[in-house]
TrEMBL record:
Disulfide bonds join C245-C257. This is Sulfotransferase. SUPFAM superfamilies: P-loop containing nucleoside triphosphate hydrolases. It comes from the Eukaryota. Belongs to the sulfotransferase 1 family. Its EC number is 2.8.2.-. Residues 1-28 are annotated as: Disordered. It is an enzyme of class 2 (transferase).
Length: 299
Protein backbone atom coordinates (compact mmCIF):
# COMPACT_ATOMS: atom_id res chain seq x y z
CA UNK A 1 0.00 0.00 0.00
CA UNK A 2 2.56 2.52 1.06
CA UNK A 3 5.04 1.76 -1.65
CA UNK A 4 2.59 1.62 -4.46
CA UNK A 5 1.71 5.30 -4.34
CA UNK A 6 3.56 7.45 -1.84
CA UNK A 7 1.33 10.13 -0.37
CA UNK A 8 3.66 12.99 -1.03
CA UNK A 9 3.52 12.55 -4.77
CA UNK A 10 -0.15 13.02 -5.34
CA UNK A 11 -1.45 15.68 -7.72
CA UNK A 12 -3.00 18.72 -6.03
CA UNK A 13 -6.53 18.23 -4.84
CA UNK A 14 -9.08 19.30 -7.46
CA UNK A 15 -12.18 21.27 -6.46
CA UNK A 16 -15.29 19.48 -5.29
CA UNK A 17 -17.67 18.09 -7.85
CA UNK A 18 -17.32 15.61 -10.65
CA UNK A 19 -14.37 15.86 -12.96
CA UNK A 20 -15.19 14.85 -16.50
CA UNK A 21 -12.05 13.72 -18.29
CA UNK A 22 -10.97 15.45 -21.48
CA UNK A 23 -9.80 12.37 -23.32
CA UNK A 24 -11.28 9.31 -21.66
CA UNK A 25 -14.96 8.71 -21.19
CA UNK A 26 -16.48 8.56 -17.75
CA UNK A 27 -16.53 10.55 -14.59
CA UNK A 28 -14.56 10.28 -11.39
CA UNK A 29 -16.98 9.71 -8.56
CA UNK A 30 -16.88 9.07 -4.88
CA UNK A 31 -17.43 5.42 -4.13
CA UNK A 32 -21.07 4.38 -4.12
CA UNK A 33 -20.09 1.54 -1.83
CA UNK A 34 -17.17 0.67 0.38
CA UNK A 35 -16.11 -2.82 1.37
CA UNK A 36 -15.17 -1.90 4.93
CA UNK A 37 -14.03 -5.32 6.11
CA UNK A 38 -13.02 -7.65 7.36
CA UNK A 39 -9.43 -8.52 6.75
CA UNK A 40 -9.13 -12.19 5.65
CA UNK A 41 -12.90 -12.44 5.36
CA UNK A 42 -12.90 -12.79 1.59
CA UNK A 43 -12.85 -9.11 0.62
CA UNK A 44 -10.68 -9.64 -2.45
CA UNK A 45 -13.02 -12.27 -3.81
CA UNK A 46 -15.87 -9.74 -3.68
CA UNK A 47 -13.87 -7.11 -5.50
CA UNK A 48 -12.45 -9.41 -8.15
CA UNK A 49 -15.91 -9.96 -9.52
CA UNK A 50 -16.65 -7.91 -12.61
CA UNK A 51 -19.52 -5.90 -11.12
CA UNK A 52 -17.69 -2.67 -10.63
CA UNK A 53 -14.83 -0.52 -11.63
CA UNK A 54 -12.89 -0.86 -8.49
CA UNK A 55 -10.41 1.16 -6.63
CA UNK A 56 -9.12 -0.59 -3.61
CA UNK A 57 -6.68 0.71 -1.12
CA UNK A 58 -3.73 -0.94 -2.82
CA UNK A 59 -4.17 1.57 -5.61
CA UNK A 60 -3.37 4.30 -3.14
CA UNK A 61 -6.76 5.94 -2.96
CA UNK A 62 -6.61 6.55 0.70
CA UNK A 63 -2.96 7.43 0.81
CA UNK A 64 -3.64 10.70 -0.91
CA UNK A 65 -6.27 11.51 1.61
CA UNK A 66 -3.99 11.44 4.55
CA UNK A 67 -4.30 14.65 6.45
CA UNK A 68 -2.67 14.67 9.85
CA UNK A 69 -4.92 15.73 12.72
CA UNK A 70 -3.27 19.18 12.66
CA UNK A 71 -4.54 19.73 9.13
CA UNK A 72 -1.17 19.96 7.39
CA UNK A 73 -1.79 19.15 3.75
CA UNK A 74 1.63 17.68 3.07
CA UNK A 75 1.69 14.26 4.66
CA UNK A 76 4.99 12.58 5.28
CA UNK A 77 5.84 10.28 2.36
CA UNK A 78 4.81 6.74 3.04
CA UNK A 79 2.62 7.62 6.00
CA UNK A 80 -0.71 6.54 4.72
CA UNK A 81 -2.78 4.89 7.40
CA UNK A 82 -6.22 4.51 5.95
CA UNK A 83 -7.69 5.25 9.35
CA UNK A 84 -6.78 8.89 8.80
CA UNK A 85 -9.67 9.43 6.49
CA UNK A 86 -10.57 13.06 6.70
CA UNK A 87 -13.03 15.41 5.12
CA UNK A 88 -10.42 16.22 2.49
CA UNK A 89 -11.15 12.69 1.37
CA UNK A 90 -14.10 14.08 -0.57
CA UNK A 91 -11.94 16.12 -2.85
CA UNK A 92 -8.69 14.26 -2.97
CA UNK A 93 -9.95 10.80 -3.34
CA UNK A 94 -12.36 11.62 -6.08
CA UNK A 95 -9.42 12.63 -8.22
CA UNK A 96 -7.91 9.22 -7.72
CA UNK A 97 -11.00 7.24 -8.45
CA UNK A 98 -11.15 5.42 -11.74
CA UNK A 99 -13.43 6.92 -14.35
CA UNK A 100 -16.77 5.19 -14.53
CA UNK A 101 -19.57 5.35 -17.02
CA UNK A 102 -23.10 6.02 -15.85
CA UNK A 103 -23.76 2.30 -16.11
CA UNK A 104 -20.86 1.54 -13.79
CA UNK A 105 -20.27 2.14 -10.14
CA UNK A 106 -17.21 2.82 -8.08
CA UNK A 107 -16.47 0.62 -5.12
CA UNK A 108 -13.61 1.03 -2.73
CA UNK A 109 -12.21 -1.55 -0.36
CA UNK A 110 -10.35 -0.89 2.85
CA UNK A 111 -10.78 -3.86 5.20
CA UNK A 112 -9.34 -2.06 8.22
CA UNK A 113 -12.25 0.42 8.34
CA UNK A 114 -14.59 -2.01 10.06
CA UNK A 115 -12.42 -2.02 13.17
CA UNK A 116 -11.39 1.66 13.00
CA UNK A 117 -13.31 3.73 15.52
CA UNK A 118 -13.24 6.93 13.47
CA UNK A 119 -14.20 5.40 10.14
CA UNK A 120 -18.03 5.41 10.50
CA UNK A 121 -18.20 9.11 11.36
CA UNK A 122 -15.81 10.10 8.61
CA UNK A 123 -17.50 8.06 5.93
CA UNK A 124 -20.85 9.44 7.10
CA UNK A 125 -19.49 12.97 6.79
CA UNK A 126 -18.16 12.21 3.33
CA UNK A 127 -21.46 10.81 2.11
CA UNK A 128 -24.21 9.52 4.35
CA UNK A 129 -25.61 7.51 1.43
CA UNK A 130 -22.52 5.36 1.06
CA UNK A 131 -23.43 1.70 1.05
CA UNK A 132 -21.30 -0.48 3.25
CA UNK A 133 -20.30 -4.07 2.60
CA UNK A 134 -18.79 -6.27 5.29
CA UNK A 135 -17.48 -9.72 4.45
CA UNK A 136 -17.54 -11.79 7.63
CA UNK A 137 -16.17 -15.23 8.28
CA UNK A 138 -16.00 -17.58 11.27
CA UNK A 139 -13.86 -15.46 13.61
CA UNK A 140 -11.77 -18.45 14.73
CA UNK A 141 -10.84 -19.38 11.15
CA UNK A 142 -10.35 -15.72 10.35
CA UNK A 143 -7.89 -15.33 13.25
CA UNK A 144 -5.92 -18.38 12.11
CA UNK A 145 -5.88 -17.07 8.54
CA UNK A 146 -4.67 -13.69 9.77
CA UNK A 147 -1.92 -15.32 11.85
CA UNK A 148 -0.90 -17.56 8.92
CA UNK A 149 -0.50 -14.48 6.75
CA UNK A 150 1.63 -12.66 9.33
CA UNK A 151 3.74 -15.77 9.87
CA UNK A 152 4.44 -16.01 6.15
CA UNK A 153 6.01 -12.54 6.32
CA UNK A 154 7.56 -12.75 9.81
CA UNK A 155 8.52 -16.35 10.56
CA UNK A 156 9.91 -15.41 14.00
CA UNK A 157 6.67 -14.33 15.66
CA UNK A 158 5.46 -16.25 18.74
CA UNK A 159 3.06 -19.18 18.35
CA UNK A 160 -0.64 -18.63 17.77
CA UNK A 161 -1.35 -20.12 21.18
CA UNK A 162 1.19 -17.79 22.79
CA UNK A 163 -0.42 -14.71 21.27
CA UNK A 164 -4.01 -15.78 21.86
CA UNK A 165 -4.03 -15.98 25.64
CA UNK A 166 -3.24 -13.60 28.42
CA UNK A 167 -3.51 -16.65 30.67
CA UNK A 168 -4.15 -19.95 28.95
CA UNK A 169 -4.96 -22.05 31.98
CA UNK A 170 -7.56 -19.50 33.05
CA UNK A 171 -8.78 -19.29 29.46
CA UNK A 172 -8.16 -15.54 29.36
CA UNK A 173 -8.06 -14.44 25.73
CA UNK A 174 -5.95 -11.43 24.76
CA UNK A 175 -8.49 -9.14 23.11
CA UNK A 176 -5.82 -6.56 22.41
CA UNK A 177 -4.27 -8.83 19.80
CA UNK A 178 -5.66 -7.63 16.49
CA UNK A 179 -6.14 -11.12 15.10
CA UNK A 180 -8.56 -11.77 17.96
CA UNK A 181 -10.10 -8.29 18.19
CA UNK A 182 -11.15 -8.11 14.53
CA UNK A 183 -13.45 -11.14 14.96
CA UNK A 184 -15.49 -9.48 17.73
CA UNK A 185 -17.88 -8.32 15.03
CA UNK A 186 -20.74 -7.33 17.35
CA UNK A 187 -18.51 -4.85 19.14
CA UNK A 188 -17.32 -3.10 15.97
CA UNK A 189 -20.78 -3.08 14.44
CA UNK A 190 -22.04 -0.93 17.32
CA UNK A 191 -19.91 2.01 16.12
CA UNK A 192 -21.31 1.75 12.58
CA UNK A 193 -24.89 1.59 13.76
CA UNK A 194 -24.46 4.94 15.45
CA UNK A 195 -24.21 6.48 11.97
CA UNK A 196 -25.71 4.08 9.44
CA UNK A 197 -28.99 2.14 9.48
CA UNK A 198 -28.67 -1.60 9.20
CA UNK A 199 -30.39 -1.41 5.80
CA UNK A 200 -27.34 0.41 4.46
CA UNK A 201 -24.96 -2.34 5.51
CA UNK A 202 -24.73 -5.63 3.67
CA UNK A 203 -23.05 -8.65 5.23
CA UNK A 204 -21.47 -11.19 2.95
CA UNK A 205 -20.84 -14.67 4.29
CA UNK A 206 -17.18 -15.48 3.70
CA UNK A 207 -18.08 -19.17 3.81
CA UNK A 208 -20.84 -18.93 1.20
CA UNK A 209 -18.59 -16.82 -0.98
CA UNK A 210 -16.56 -20.01 -1.43
CA UNK A 211 -19.37 -22.57 -1.65
CA UNK A 212 -21.79 -20.43 -3.68
CA UNK A 213 -19.97 -17.38 -5.10
CA UNK A 214 -22.67 -16.55 -7.64
CA UNK A 215 -25.43 -16.69 -5.04
CA UNK A 216 -23.52 -14.54 -2.58
CA UNK A 217 -22.51 -12.04 -5.28
CA UNK A 218 -26.13 -12.01 -6.47
CA UNK A 219 -27.12 -10.60 -3.08
CA UNK A 220 -24.34 -8.01 -3.31
CA UNK A 221 -25.63 -6.89 -6.69
CA UNK A 222 -29.18 -6.62 -5.33
CA UNK A 223 -27.89 -4.56 -2.44
CA UNK A 224 -26.05 -2.23 -4.82
CA UNK A 225 -29.18 -1.92 -6.92
CA UNK A 226 -27.56 -3.22 -10.07
CA UNK A 227 -28.65 -5.93 -12.44
CA UNK A 228 -27.55 -9.45 -11.54
CA UNK A 229 -24.79 -9.70 -14.11
CA UNK A 230 -22.74 -12.28 -12.25
CA UNK A 231 -24.19 -15.74 -12.31
CA UNK A 232 -23.01 -19.31 -11.97
CA UNK A 233 -21.73 -19.27 -15.50
CA UNK A 234 -18.96 -16.84 -14.52
CA UNK A 235 -17.35 -19.29 -12.08
CA UNK A 236 -15.74 -22.69 -12.12
CA UNK A 237 -14.24 -24.65 -9.26
CA UNK A 238 -10.48 -24.93 -9.66
CA UNK A 239 -9.43 -28.22 -8.03
CA UNK A 240 -5.77 -27.25 -7.76
CA UNK A 241 -6.56 -23.97 -6.05
CA UNK A 242 -9.41 -25.49 -4.07
CA UNK A 243 -11.51 -22.38 -4.64
CA UNK A 244 -13.91 -20.94 -7.19
CA UNK A 245 -12.22 -18.95 -9.93
CA UNK A 246 -13.50 -16.70 -12.70
CA UNK A 247 -13.88 -18.36 -16.10
CA UNK A 248 -12.88 -15.13 -17.80
CA UNK A 249 -11.11 -12.23 -16.19
CA UNK A 250 -12.24 -8.77 -17.19
CA UNK A 251 -8.77 -7.68 -18.25
CA UNK A 252 -7.44 -10.65 -20.22
CA UNK A 253 -10.51 -12.72 -20.93
CA UNK A 254 -8.61 -15.71 -19.51
CA UNK A 255 -9.55 -17.86 -16.51
CA UNK A 256 -8.43 -16.25 -13.31
CA UNK A 257 -7.99 -17.41 -9.71
CA UNK A 258 -7.00 -15.20 -6.83
CA UNK A 259 -3.29 -15.05 -6.01
CA UNK A 260 -1.22 -17.19 -3.65
CA UNK A 261 -2.00 -15.05 -0.61
CA UNK A 262 -5.69 -16.01 -0.93
CA UNK A 263 -6.39 -19.58 0.06
CA UNK A 264 -3.22 -20.45 1.94
CA UNK A 265 -2.90 -23.67 3.91
CA UNK A 266 -3.47 -22.66 7.51
CA UNK A 267 -1.11 -23.30 10.38
CA UNK A 268 -2.17 -26.31 12.48
CA UNK A 269 -3.61 -25.19 15.80
CA UNK A 270 -4.15 -27.31 18.91
CA UNK A 271 -7.85 -28.38 18.81
CA UNK A 272 -8.20 -27.45 22.47
CA UNK A 273 -7.20 -23.88 21.67
CA UNK A 274 -9.73 -23.80 18.86
CA UNK A 275 -12.39 -24.99 21.29
CA UNK A 276 -11.45 -22.27 23.78
CA UNK A 277 -11.66 -19.66 21.05
CA UNK A 278 -15.06 -20.95 19.95
CA UNK A 279 -16.26 -20.49 23.53
CA UNK A 280 -14.76 -17.04 23.62
CA UNK A 281 -16.45 -15.86 20.42
CA UNK A 282 -19.84 -17.54 21.03
CA UNK A 283 -21.50 -14.62 22.88
CA UNK A 284 -20.15 -12.11 20.36
CA UNK A 285 -21.39 -14.25 17.47
CA UNK A 286 -24.86 -14.63 19.00
CA UNK A 287 -25.10 -10.89 19.56
CA UNK A 288 -23.94 -10.30 15.98
CA UNK A 289 -26.54 -12.71 14.53
CA UNK A 290 -29.29 -11.04 16.58
CA UNK A 291 -28.25 -7.55 15.52
CA UNK A 292 -28.00 -8.27 11.80
CA UNK A 293 -30.88 -10.77 11.76
CA UNK A 294 -28.82 -13.43 10.03
CA UNK A 295 -27.40 -16.68 11.38
CA UNK A 296 -23.94 -17.35 9.93
CA UNK A 297 -23.77 -20.80 11.56
CA UNK A 298 -20.27 -20.54 12.95
CA UNK A 299 -21.11 -22.70 15.95
P1 LIG B 1 -7.44 -17.98 3.44
O1 LIG B 1 -6.19 -17.53 2.73
O2 LIG B 1 -7.31 -18.05 4.89
O3 LIG B 1 -8.03 -19.22 2.85
P2 LIG B 1 -9.22 -11.31 2.05
O4 LIG B 1 -9.27 -11.15 0.57
O5 LIG B 1 -10.25 -10.50 2.76
O6 LIG B 1 -7.84 -11.14 2.58
O7 LIG B 1 -9.66 -12.82 2.38
C1 LIG B 1 -8.86 -13.90 2.03
C2 LIG B 1 -9.73 -15.14 2.12
O8 LIG B 1 -10.67 -15.15 1.05
C3 LIG B 1 -8.97 -16.43 1.94
O9 LIG B 1 -8.53 -16.82 3.20
C4 LIG B 1 -10.02 -17.39 1.35
O10 LIG B 1 -10.49 -18.35 2.27
C5 LIG B 1 -11.17 -16.46 1.00
N1 LIG B 1 -11.71 -16.66 -0.35
C6 LIG B 1 -13.01 -16.51 -0.65
N2 LIG B 1 -13.22 -16.77 -1.96
C7 LIG B 1 -12.01 -17.08 -2.48
C8 LIG B 1 -11.58 -17.43 -3.80
N3 LIG B 1 -12.45 -17.50 -4.81
N4 LIG B 1 -10.27 -17.71 -4.00
C9 LIG B 1 -9.41 -17.63 -2.95
N5 LIG B 1 -9.75 -17.28 -1.69
C10 LIG B 1 -11.05 -17.00 -1.46
Amino acid sequence: LQQSRPCGRQPPAPPAGSIPGPARPGTKRLPRAIVVGVKKGGTRAVLESPIARVLHSAAGGICACFVPPGGDMSPPPGACPSSFLSITFCFTCRSLMPRTLDSQITVEKTPSYFVTKEAPRRIFNMSRDTKLIVVVRNPVTRAISDYTQTLSKKPDIPTFEGLTFRNRSLGLVDTSWNAIRIGMYAVHLESWLQYFPLSQIHFVSGEKLITDPAGEMGKVQDFLGIKRVITDKHFYFNKTKGFPCLKKSESSGLPRCLGKSKGRTHVQIDPEVIEQLRDFYRPYNIKFYETVGQDFRWE
